[in-house]
Amino acid sequence: MEYNKQVMNLIVGLGNPGKEYEHTYHNVGRMALEHWLAQTDADATFRRHGDYFEYARSGDIVFVRPLTFMNESGLAVREAAKHFTIKPEDIVVLHDDSDIPPGEYKISFGGGAAGHKGVQSVIDHLHTEDFSRGRIGIRDPQEQTRKKAGDFVLDAVTPTDRNMLAGVFAEIEASALRA
Fold first, then answer.
1. How many domains does the chain have?
2. What distances in angstroms separate CA 166 from CA 3, 26, 32, one per listed residue?
3. What percent of the chain is helix, strand and coil (3-state, nearest 5)?
4. Quick check: 6 pLDDT over 70?
5. Of the residues 9, 111, 116, 136, which has the fewest C-beta atoms closer than 10 A?
6. Angle at 102 between CA 99 and CA 108, to 5 degrees
7. Is residue 61 in a domain?
8. CA 113/CA 106 separation, integer angstroms
9. What angle do CA 28, 31, 33 make, to 5 degrees?
10. Which residues are catalytic?
C-alpha cells in the first residue's frame, strides 16, 4: 500500500452513512478505518466538516468517513483532499470488493474501479486513478450461483465474517505501516 510517512496521508473508509448501513458488507471500508483509528493513540472523536465528511487525526494520518452515500463518495474524498491539501497519490481508499472472499484482501495502486461505484466516484472526482486501495473481500465463496453485488452488499455482516474481517483490518494496517 502506498503509505508515505514523509507527508500527511488521507485514509478513507468507504460506506454508507446511517445506522441501518453500519454493519453491512458495503461498509467494511468504514469498519476497517474505524479499526485502524482505534489502534492509534489518537482521540477517536470524529469532527464534522460540512456536509461531505467527518475526520479524526493521528500524527500524519487523517482518517475520513464520507457523509455521502457510497455512489457519491468522490465528492467527500475530493473535498477532504482539498481541505487538507493532500495529493491523490497520498490517499488510501478502503472499500468492499465483491470479487474477493471474506478473510482476503488486496492492496493496489491505480487501476480502474472494476464496477465499484464508490471507487468510480472517487476516480471521477479526483480526475485520476492514482491513489491506493485496500480492497476487502466480501463474496461468499460457497455461493451456488454468482449473485450480483447489489443483491448482498447491504446484508448484515455475519458474526463469523466479522471475526475474520477484524484480522483482515489488522493485516491491512500492518502492511500500510511497513511501507
1. 1
2. 20, 15, 8
3. 40, 20, 40
4. no
5. 111
6. 55
7. yes
8. 14
9. 115
10. 26
Per-residue model confidence as pLDDT tens digits over 25-39: 899 999 999 998 888
The cell 474524498 sits on which residue?
77
In a domain, 2, yes or no: no
User: Which whole number is the average pLDDT over 80-87?
Assistant: 96
Q: Is the pTM of this model over 0.85?
A: yes
Sheet holding 61-66, edge to edge: 47-49, 53-58, 61-66, 9-13, 91-97, 132-137, 105-109
DSSP conformation letters of 9-74:
EEEEE----SGGGTTBGGGHHHHHHHHHHHTSSS----EEETTTEEEEEETTEEEEEESS-GGGHH
DSSP-assigned letter for residue 156:
B
Query: What is the number of residues in the chain?
Result: 179
User: Is residue 84 within 8 Å of 31, Cβ to Cβ?
Assistant: no
Give the Cα-Cα-Cα angle 91, 93, 94 (nearest 5 degrees): 145
Task: Find how far residue 108's CA is from the centre of its chain.
Answer: 13
Q: Write the CATH number for 142.
A: 3.40.50.1470
